[in-house]
Amino acid sequence: MDTHIWVSFFFRNRFQEILQKINIEDGIIYTCSEQLHEFAGIHAGNPKIAKMLPLKTQTSTRAMRFSCADFPVQKRYSLLMDYKDNYLVDLANQTNSAFVSNDKGFLILKN
Prior knowledge:
Layout lengths: L2 H9 L3 H10 L5 E2 L1 H13 L1 H6 L4 H11 L1 E2 L15 H9 L17
Parallel strand pairs: 1-2
Helix pairs in contact: 1-3, 3-5
């Protein structure tokens, strides 16, 4: 999942609901150290977002870490204009997973 999807889950207090649904479906959510670092940067580096989210940065990243399978990403792709998001393409590809995002920057992946 794109990091901004995580921000949305926490903002809307849907984190637990999403995890229950994934668990019922026997799904796995993958994350990696790059994503946890990106989330912490978004949360702590943007006072407006930090104020909107109910949990502290460390609590949110800990919740992500413990609810996801941690996967060490090997850098391979450079498909996206926002180069720092390419690790998410690597993560989805290397875990043979679907990728969830509402970011227009990922539309290139449809092709």
